[in-house]
Structure formats: C-alpha cells, structure tokens
Amino acid sequence: MKFWRVIPAVLIGAGLYVYSNSFSGAFVFDDLRWIVDNPRLRHLWPLDKLLAGSTRPTVQLSLAVNYAVGGLNVWGYHAFNVATHILAGLVLFGIVRRTLESDRLRLRYGRAAPWLAMGVALLWMVHPLQTESVTYVIQRAESLMGLFYLLTLYCGIRGGRSARPVGWFAGGVAACLLGMGSKEVMVSAPIMVLLYDRVFISKSFAEIFRKRWGFYAGLAVIWLIGGALLANSPLEETAGFLAGVEKISVWDYAKTQCGVIVYYLRLCFWPYPLVLDYIDWPLAKSLVSVLPAAVVVLTLLGGTVWAWLRQPWLGFLGAWFFLILAPTSSFLPIRDLIFEHRLYLPLAAIVTLVVIGGHEALVPFLRRAGVAQSLQHKLEIGLVVALAGGLGYRTVRRNEDYRSQFSIWRDTVAKRRNNPRAHCNLGVEFHKLGQTKDAIASYSEALRLKPDYPDAHVNLGVALVEQGQVQEAIGHYLEAARLRPHWQINEAIAQFVEAVRLKPDYAEAYNNLGEALCIQGRVKEAIPHFEQAVRLNSASAEAHHNLGVCLYSGQRIDEALPHFAEAVRLKHDWAEAQNNLGAALSARGRNFEAIVHFAEAVRLKPGYTEARDNLRRAQALQPINTR
To answer: Which domains does the chain carry?
Structure first.
C-alpha cells in the first residue's frame, strides 16, 4: 500500500477536528438577511421562483436544501460548510501532488510530492484565515466558489493528460458553471486553467487551442453566462457592488487596495487579529500615505512577471494570488474595502510557496548534516504538523468568537474600536440582554464615530424610550428620518389615517398611527390615537404601554399609571412595562409598590441594568423596619 493513500484520511480528520466547535455557532451578521429572514429559502420548489434574480444561484440552492432538511437548525448549515472546505482541501492536495509529479517538476519533487502536497493542503485547511469562509455561514459563497474553482483546474489537469479527456473536460465546464453561480470571483478561473496548461502541460498556446479548443470554448460560454447573471440582476444582490460606490474614485480605491494587499499578506504569515467587519478601514486619499505598501505590491507584481519569464511555476503562484484577488483588490470600486474571506483561494499560493521554499532550504541543510533521506521526510512532516497544530489551535479559538452575535461583535469592537457598525450591532445585542445602559453607550459611541448613522439613531431612540427619555429619543428618530428620507414617515402616517377613515374600529391602525407620530416628535398628537386604540381594544398591552409612555413624558404621571398597570396585567412577562410601572409608582412616592415591579423586571431580564439600578435606588429610599 502506498503511504500517500492515508493522506486524505489525515486531511479529513484535521478538518473535522479544527472545525468541530463551529457546529454550534450562531447565525451572525449577513446570515440574518440572507438566511434567517429570506422567504425565498422556505420553498425548494419551483426552482425558477427560488433562483429568480439571484446572481449566486448555487449558493441560494444550497441554502434552500439546508432549510428543507433542517429548517433553521444551524448545525446543518455548518456541516455543509465544513464538508465543502474539506472537499476543497482534498482537491487542492490532488492538484499540488499531480503538479509536483508532472514532467516538468518530477525530477526535482517527484519522490516528495505526496508529502509536500499534504503539507500545502493541511496548512491551507487549518489556517485561521479560513474561518470566515467556513464558520460564517453565508460566506459559503466563497468556499463553494473555491471548491468549484479548484475542481475546474483539477478536471483541466486530468483531461489534459488523459487519453480520454472528454469526461474530465465536461466535469471542468460543469464545475466552472457551478462556481460562477457561487461568486463572481470565479471569473478568473478560465484564465488560471489556461495559464496552468501553458506552464505545466503544453509547450505553447497554439498547442493548447489545437488540442483542447472544445474545453476552452466551454469555459468561454460560462464566462458569458456569468456576465448575463451579473447584468440581469439588481446591484444590491451582489455582495459589495452597491449603491454609493460612485463616491469612491478608481484611483482612490486602487491606492487603498495597496495597503489592503500588504495587510492580507501579513495575515497570511501572522493571522492576528482576525476581524469580522472592517467598515472603518480608511480610504487612501494621498499616494504618500500608501507609498510603502504600493512599493511592496508593485515589486511583487514585477516579481511575478519576472518569474513567469524565468521560473514559470513560480510566476504561476504569483498570478494565482493576484488574479483571484483582482475582482476585489484592484481598481474596480466596490462597497467593502477589505474582507478576510477574499483570501480563501489566494492563501493557497502563499502556503505552497512556504512549503516548497521550506523544502528547498531544509533539504540541503539536512544533507550537509548527514541526515538520512528517509529521516529527512519525517523531519519535514514533523515541522508541517507542528505548524499545523499552532494554526489549528488559533482556528479553534477563532471559532469560539462565532458562537453568538454578542461574542462576535464584542470581539470586533475589541479589535476595531473605531468601527461604528460594530458598536451599533453590539448595542443591539446588549439591548436583547436587557442591558439597556450598555446598549445606549454602544449606540452613542457609534454616533460619535459616525454622526450620520441612521440605524444607530433609531436604536438609541428605542433604548431611550424604554428609559422614559422620550423627548431625547424623539430627537434621534427625527435625525434618522432626515438621514434616511426613504423611510417616508409622512406617507406611512397618511396610510394609517386612510386606514382608520375606512375602518374606524381598526385599533391596530390607531396604535400604528400614534407610533408614527411619535417618530416625528408629535407626541401630543399621538396621545388621542393611542387613547382610541385602547378604547377599541382594551386588551392591547402595547397600546396601553404606548399611551402610558406618552403621558409619562408629558408629566401626566397619574394618568399614565393605570395604563402601565393594565399593560403589566395583560402582559405580565414584559420587563420594560414592569420597569416603567415601577418608575411611575416611584415618582408618586409609592416606593414599596415600585420595588415589587422593579424586582419583577430584573427577574424577567437578569441583565436589565436600568431596572436593577431603579430597584437599588428604590430600596435605598424605603425605610428599614425595626422591632
């Protein structure tokens, strides 16, 4: 038995081990929009309805299958992602092994090919940079694209050396089609297959097109299909290509990407800190600010061209890195300047260079030291395994950050303190836990960093209302409406007015009308509508609570009290209503009763800091009974 045949089992085991703690990770960030709140995924059939308008139908279909099998059970989504990553690692192993055993490299690397290929695939699979493409569910777009990209190349390699290539070439075209339906970066795959063919298989481009014209014609057709998908879909459906990018010039974007690429290279060699969201990455306005990075990038590009002419296999690695990054890290402006998952495939070139370079440096040293050849391989494998162990440990640790939305945003804030979106989203998570003071602090910090952030204004307004600071909240609602006029509050108000005209007994419409008026700061006008909602539906806890908040904000505390009390009676497990009833009672000197409701709010939401603080203050004012 050839020992290399156990290598796939080793790679599978390593992949399962380092991602074993990812299966319980939560849906985070864009997972909510594209999976949890995506109604299209709820029905696997008909396919035309599921895939209509999607530029990533392969990803959409995979998510729909996940939902059909297990609903929103996150375990199944993670299992799919991990399986995709492991398969990609196995294909990468096959590509590297067959490349090192090719006619042009066999004499130099043939005997060590399986072990070197294992080293490349193993380090690539367990590298912490890959966590964003594997553990962050929606980024299966990157890993699926990566798998089909590698399969396209693998099929091209097998077909180029096979006496019966048709099946392999058909598989390559199919893989390219599926990859194009996974992510737009797949556009460079036909080019890389062609370059590989020229470097490792054929003697000239003329020979390539003479012998394999059908294969490359098929890949060209896939290019056209990919272009049609992109052209016929709204821009917001493609990640990154969103409205607002016209504000970034081609020149500014290209300058910025010089710094981004150098940062990517650093993460390849020292993968810390890893961050989910880099929205605060600065846009380079002057060449001087990025001159050192630009020199590095231009030097590497020049080195790639030189290597292509002198050492084509080395030039191929440089082309792999730069061409796969080109759609996102060149001069075409897109929304997000930087994301770690964009290194999913380019990392393979860096790892290959490190493993082959390490082999080239280590073997002569070991020979001079008199180490037997059989032992040389073992020492090399030992070094790779040790390095994989260190990288794998960091991957396991990074997976822990994805265990909840709270943990991933807390981690992001800790590493990117000037990121307004991270602060805002952390505030949302604090709010869910009932820690409204911490939420307010997070929203306020987001607004300090980005004063024109409408989401933070709205969220801060909601939190302030819960604290009874209605007037201050209204200011944030108004600012949000000014910043985001497409909210069309006036239109909403008009619709609610028409609704109550057509159906005067429509209690919910009165309640909604009152809420819309509050958003505009028209609290006094809102009160009659909440009163009407209560008259029409006295069992509406929300209407009673809204009316109580408005009356309380106008210092009409005695009138607010019965409505807070009724809201609590109707919905006893509503912590905010319990807290507000306690506040109204305390304002009227009824401290003992207030304590009961503050305590209940804390019991319902143990992390509800405002209720806990109110309880502490009320207890301090309550006389101590003595005997």
So the answer is: 3-398 (no CATH), 415-621 (1.25.40.10)
